[in-house]
């Protein structure tokens, strides 16, 4: 089977200006979302180091996830001008993508201004919206590498990342300040439940398909190790070592997904190159 990469292929009846308002909205709202993330870096508030410190706060380097996601989404909005990209991004996702970008921008603004309860609300809405986008994309068949890179990769990372951010935002909104109060019994219990919830999500990604969902598992594992790095034992040994244990477990789901993806790629190679023995194994003969 030939390997195709259908960039900028469209029928004569189609034009790049079809539904141009939605396409422009995708571009403008992504610029706003990426700009808000840039502002968190250059802002005099220095939110990554002066924000509320909780017993679930990750190390600042975890937020490199935002520019990575926005960079990948730049490819997504370019892909919307292609025929296969338009079918998913414009015809199926519709206004969900610009709405997601707007919610992310408002979340960033609330977070920068230490309005943590508003930030939690908007992150929950953003998480709900990205779940809808994620569901639509996962229901589409993987036709080519472009779909993988410009659709599945960014939104798998986005989905896993928002799950972590919802829990982090909840601790910022309602949790105690780790620099001012010691971790009591309720704080430790909620920290454990937060870790458990995120870990269950990572396991669900790993078993969501035969190949799992490697980007989502990586996003969660990256975040778990960042939380472990930030939660020093002199603040709370319980939180420190619990974070370490769950971070180690998160690597299991990464490895499980990586192994499943490797098997799938190997199986496809066997089919592409006419490997009769591999094909026979795949169909169970």
Contiguous uncertain segments of 5+ residues: 1-12, 271-285
Query: Quick one: how many beta strands?
Result: 0
Largest sheet: none
Distance between the termini: 21 Å
User: What proportion of the residues is helical, as a percent range?
Assistant: over 70%
Rg = 21 Å
Percent strand: under 5%
Average per-residue pLDDT, rounded, comes to: 87
The count of helical stretches stands at 11
Compressed to H and E, one letter per element, the order equals: HHHHHHHHHHH
- Indicate the overall shape: globular
Quickly give the structural class. Answer: mainly alpha
Structure description:
- This protein is mainly alpha-helical.
- The protein has helices at 20-42, 47-50, 65-79, 83-90, 96-112, 116-139, 145-174, 185-206, 214-230, 237-272, 276-282.
- Helix 6 packs antiparallel against helix 7 and helix 7 (145-174) runs parallel beside helix 9 (214-230).
- The longest helix is centred in the last third of the chain and has 36 residues, at 237-272.
Quick structural gist:
The protein is mostly helical and 285 residues long. It contains eleven helices and no strands.
Please describe the structure with a list of short key phrases separated by commas or semicolons.
single chain; 285 residues; mainly alpha; 11 helices; 71% helix; disordered C terminus
């Amino acid at each position: 089977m030939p390997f195709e990469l259908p960039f900028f292929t469209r029928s004569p009846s189609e034009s790049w200006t079809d539904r141009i308002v939605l396409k422009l909205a995708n571009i403008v709202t992504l610029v706003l979302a990426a700009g808000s993330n840039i502002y968190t870096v250059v802002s005099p508030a220095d939110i990554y180091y002066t924000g509320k410190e909780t017993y679930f706060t990750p190390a600042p380097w975890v937020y490199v996830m935002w520019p990575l996601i926005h960079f990948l989404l730049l490819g997504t909005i370019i892909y919307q001008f292609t025929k296969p990209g338009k079918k998913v991004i414009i015809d199926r996702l519709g206004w969900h993508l610009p709405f997601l970008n707007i919610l992310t921008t408002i979340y960033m603004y609330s977070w920068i201004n230490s309005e943590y309860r508003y930030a939690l609300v908007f992150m929950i809405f953003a998480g709900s919206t990205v779940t809808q986008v994620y569901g639509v994309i996962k229901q589409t068949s993987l036709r080519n590498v472009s779909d993988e890179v410009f659709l599945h990769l960014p939104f798998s990372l986005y989905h896993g990342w928002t799950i972590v951010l919802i829990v982090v935002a909840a601790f910022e909104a309602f949790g105690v300040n780790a620099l001012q109060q010691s971790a009591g019994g309720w704080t430790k219990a909620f920290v454990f439940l937060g870790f458990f919830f995120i870990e269950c999500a990572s396991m669900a990604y790993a078993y969501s398909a035969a190949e799992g969902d490697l980007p989502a598992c990586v996003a969660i594992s990256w975040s778990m190790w960042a939380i472990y790095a930030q939660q020093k034992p002199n603040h709370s040994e319980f939180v420190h070592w619990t974070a370490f244990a769950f971070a180690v477990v998160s690597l299991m789901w990464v490895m499980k997904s990586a192994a499943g993806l490797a098997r799938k790629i190997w199986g496809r190679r066997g089919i592409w190159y006419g490997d009769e023995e591999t094909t026979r194994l795949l169909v169970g003969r």
